[in-house]
Amino acid sequence: MAAPEGSGSRPITLREIEAQVSQYWEATRVLPRALADRPGAPIFRFTEGPPTANGAPHMGHVVQRILKDLQLRYRRANGYRILSSMAGWDCHGLPVELQVEKQLGVKSKLEIERYGIDRFSEACRTEATTAAGLFVEMSRRIGFWLDYDHAYFTLQPTYIESVWWSLKTLFDRQLLEKGHYVLPYCPRCETPLSSHEVAQGYRETSDPSVTVRFPLVRPDGPRRSLLVWTTTPWTLPANLLVAVRSDLAYVTVAGPDGEELVLAGEALERYGLTHARVVERCRGSDLVGREYRPPFDFAGPGPGRYRVVADDSVTATDGTGLVHTSPSFGPEDQRIGAAAGVGSFDPLDSRGRFTDRVPPVQGKFFKAADPILTRDLESRGLLYASGTIRHTYPFCWRCDTPLLYRAVDSWFLRTRRLTDRLVAYNRRVEWIPAHLRDGRFGNFLTEAKDWALSRNRYWGTPLPLWVCPQGHTTCIGSFAELAERIGEPLPADFDPHRVGVDRLRVRCATCQDVTRREPYTLDTWYDSGCAPFAQYHYPFESGRFDPNEPLDFICEGLDQTRGWFYTLHVLATALFDRPAYRRVLVNGMVLDENGRKMSKSKGNAVDPLELLGEVGGDALRWTFVAVDFTEPMRISPAIVQSTGVRFLRTLLNVAAFYLQNSRAGGPGWDGRPPHPTGALDRWILSRWETTREAVGRALESGDPRPAIAPITGLVDDLSTWYLRRSRPRFWAEEASADRTDAFATLGAILDGLAHLLAPFLPFTTEWLHQEVARTGWKSAETSVHLAAWPVAVAARSPELETAMERLRAEVEQGRVLRQRAEVKARIPLAELAYASERPADWAPLGAEADRLLAEELNVRAIRWGAAPADWSESEWVVRRDRDRPVAALPRRPTPELAQEGLLRELLRRLQQARKAAGLDYTDRIDLTLAVDRATREAVERARDRLIADLLVGRLEFHDGPLPDGPGVQRWTEEGFDWAARLVRVAPAPGSRP
RNA sequence: GGGCCCAUAGCUUAGUUUGGCUGGAGCACCCGGCUGAUAACCGGGAGGUCGUCGGUUCAAAUCCGACUGGGCCCA
Predict the structure, then answer these.
(1) Which residues does residue A224 pair with via DSSP β-bridges, in sequence order?
(2) Is the CB of A729 under 7 A from strand B?
């Protein structure tokens, strides 16, 4: 890696590191090497959940990718063969079609067909591949390593052929069937939607709430009407029945104009009829069979129509307890209508507009018919009450059009026949967080309806089903079979989309008659559910996909509970009779900094690339792991700064210290495990081992969260205690065992951290590993990401860790005491005296305990077992514990120590002057000093030290005031009267570096 | 309307499984210190009705219930 040749000692920035590392990876082709297959190695099964290839990636994609990458890097470091590392994209379906419709400016299926399905499909293909490019760029910036050169696309012929194979398998198992059922239907997209698509589009809206008179047919007496409530007046022309509940109490009350009204007893209050005169009381069952005149007569007569029927689904908690039933427009209605054998009446065209079968609203969009029909009812005296109601209603998740429920032909995967196995296999899955298994996901499995698979659209996997005039269905499960059925080889450039498939003349497999393809495409969620095997073109190419093995790990957002998690699980159960995955890590949604959901329309969405440009990939990675990603999480530049950037900066500061001293003549680390004798070194190595084990445990478990606290704890200890107390050891000019131990210990831990944190921080750790290796260890791996997971290099000692913790607590107490003494920390004091003996649990620290304490507090000695009686308040500051004196510090330094303090004061100021003059820490200077007598004595006594510390060539003293001039500095505050002139001189040959 | 999950200082969080010492950190803030890591380091301070209300208990951030707010899912 290029040396970070900073000018002077300017520290390298995170941005520079990431740029350098990216280049380095390119140059050394690390990514393909890391992802290279490892035949024979233990297998870790994974599949990338394919994002929909339309539009730009958002923060949700970023979190998942970070979490996936973390686990995959960990497994690679442990020698696993990842099956598969392929990136993947979900290229089909409404999301892509809608994007293309916008681009082309077309608005309906008719316009698409005028434009040409072939050209439209081509545009969809282009859109899918373009969008994939945006994901690749984002992934590169966060260091998400997948095989982008061999990605799977659900539009690939091989992929589609695998999907066909699966459909044929299900067809043969009689799990794939056609039905005419009421489904949610988008009139703009002109297609039914699956329940998981509908689920994404519920929102609060206002609808009419009308109560209508349905006059009963009876020979005599006053007019008597059923009161019927609905929020969809547009369905009234399709009314064929009214449903009641047999065991519910109904009453007939007298209305204002002598008319009589029938409704459930429970509903009287709702209609303000509590005090109305009751004409008759009965049960629902008594009403069954009564005929009424429908509000509109467009449906015409038919057997059994316009009667009261009984159904258990009826309640009186809303409305009147008499339920308007239009078999074409509601799931319950359809069932009730079928039971009564009344047929159906659907006066809407495929775009949700009324046909000429309902002249008053002909050509009107179904919603637009509501007010017109309501007025019509009013004019005929049939409207009893009207208002509006706020409730949640489904809208199309892609185009925001209100959906309607209507009976349509559709192909279903009969998932309800699999419910027991779906539930049983889910019990084998390890969900993170665990509550999802029996909570949300488990609940859904028990309730799940059959899966409506077919879409009346263009861009998707064509349903490989052909029907002949005799009604035989032929399901084709491979291209070879297709060729056989058309009686000739497929064209060389065969594209298994509608354009390529619809023109083929397929012969019926049963009777050889000419067939017609079922004109549907497949729900794109089915495509992505096939990813584990279809990406490998199973079963046409064998080897890497094992039908008996679930995936070891997948990771997606919580929104996939009903999406990919579900479709994977259903298909694995139906096709392979096993769970789809062993472990699934689920992340929460990403919110903005105020905790609000990010959305494009609200304008509060954080653009991933923008944020990455600001804070960098590693800082974002660290932040996403450090916050609780299983819950909704707030993300903003400020949060990344204080979490991710902050942590990285501490780590880099430690590294910078080590690297700088290594280059300045320190020995660096030779790459061997350290065997230090000192307690401080052994302590930090023990801390390292504790951390290494904790991180390994966490990543092994699939949940990285427990790794965070140990890591930040270690880095903090390293920075604020180990390094703080070890600094002079790194400055030693002469080789010594102690200096070697210091470099070896810190070097080993920094390189160890590079390996340990590589899955978390791929950029920074690569830089760190390469840089540490450069300081003297020549056999660095090409990349830390090609290296093995770190093994133990030292012994753990919990006793030593505890002892150090106690010592540090004592140090803190000592610091407080020193502040109370009001003697500057740089002025040494003679001793720190304790009334007690040295604590027994400090034993693992040995003699170093006193030394660490003394150095940190700048006292010359620690005296144990001192007599508190000697601690006069005028001479000592005393720490007391419940009035008992426990420790004491002298209030003043001895004269010698005071002089030494003076020297340190001067040295410090001269160092500052060096820096202020822009001198590098290797520059030599000539120094002229004009100082008072006491200071001069102190300097002369420590002349060698001053010359060495300040890299002084010639040292002179100036009597009297030093005249102003270049390089002259003066200090007159705090009672000092000092001046100095610093002049840079050329470095002497052979001098320290 | 139903289900699951979450709520600790301005921010990120530990502690909640198994109730028990004055609820810990870090960042930011204020005061002071240090100065061969310097957008670093050290000391002190301020900042918490542990979302709200109620219950169980000698004792509740922790267990139970209701509510509020947020998220996801279902209808």
Answers:
(1) A260
(2) no
Question: Mean of the pLDDT values across residues A480-489?
Answer: 93
Cα within 13 Å of Cα(A861), Cβ side: 6
Q: Residue A536 corresponds to which tokens in the numbers above?
A: 């490998």
A391 CA from B3 C1′ (Å): 19
Q: Which of A571, A583, A584 is nearest to A422 (CA)?
A: A571
**Are A164 and A464 contacting, i.e. CB atoms less than 8 angstroms apart?**
yes
What is the secondary structure of A85-126 as a DSSP string? -EEEEB--SHHHHHHHHHHHT--SHHHHHHH-HHHHHHHHHH
From the CA of A434 to the C1' of B55: give the distance in Å. 29
CA distances in angstroms from A487 to A506, A518, A845, listed in the order given: 8, 20, 86
Q: Which residues pair with A862 in a beta bridge?
A: A832
> Using CA atoms, how far apart are residues A792 and A778, in angstroms rounded to an integer?
21
Q: Which domains does chain A have, with CATH numbers?
A: 202-394 (3.90.740.10), 464-519 (no CATH), 633-774 (1.10.730.10), 800-893 (no CATH), 897-985 (3.30.2320.20)
The model's pLDDT over A716-734, given as tens digits with 9 standing for 90+, comes to 889 888 988 888 888 887 8
R_g (Cα) of chain A, nearest Å: 40
Give every CB contact of residue A568 below 8 A, 6+ residues apart in sequence: A529, A531, A532, A554, A580, A581
Covered bases, chain B (protein CB within 7 Å): 1, 3-6, 10-14, 26-28, 32-44, 70-75
User: What pTM does this model have?
Assistant: 0.86
Percent of chain A, pLDDT > 70? 95
- Residues A266-285 pLDDT 10s: 888 888 888 889 999 999 89
**Nearest nucleotide (CA of A200 to C1'):** B73
The H or E element containing residue A35 is helix A30-35
| Range from A104-108, A324-328, A790-794 carrying the lowest mean pLDDT | A104-108
Is residue A747 a contact partner of residue A775, using CB atoms and an 8 Å limit? yes
- In this structure, is the CB of residue A586 within 7 Å of any atom belonging to strand B? no
For residue A856, the tally of other CB atoms under 10 A from its CB is: 20
Q: What is the pLDDT of residues A19-75, one digit of tens each?
A: 999 999 999 999 999 999 999 999 999 999 999 887 788 888 999 999 999 999 999
C-alpha span between A792 and A690 (Å, rounded): 10
Q: What is the mean pLDDT of chain A?
A: 87
pLDDT tens by residue, A778-808 = 667 889 999 999 999 998 998 898 888 888 8
Closest protein residue to B7 (Cα–C1')? A631
Distance of alpha carbon A11 from its chain centroid, rounded?
32
Tell me the sheet residues that pair with A192. A185
Q: For A81, phi and psi rounded to 5 degrees?
A: -95, 120
Structure-token match 């390094």, residue found: A723
- Give the pair of three-digit tokens for residue A977: 């009267």
Q: Which nucleotide is nearest to A596 (CA to C1')?
A: B70
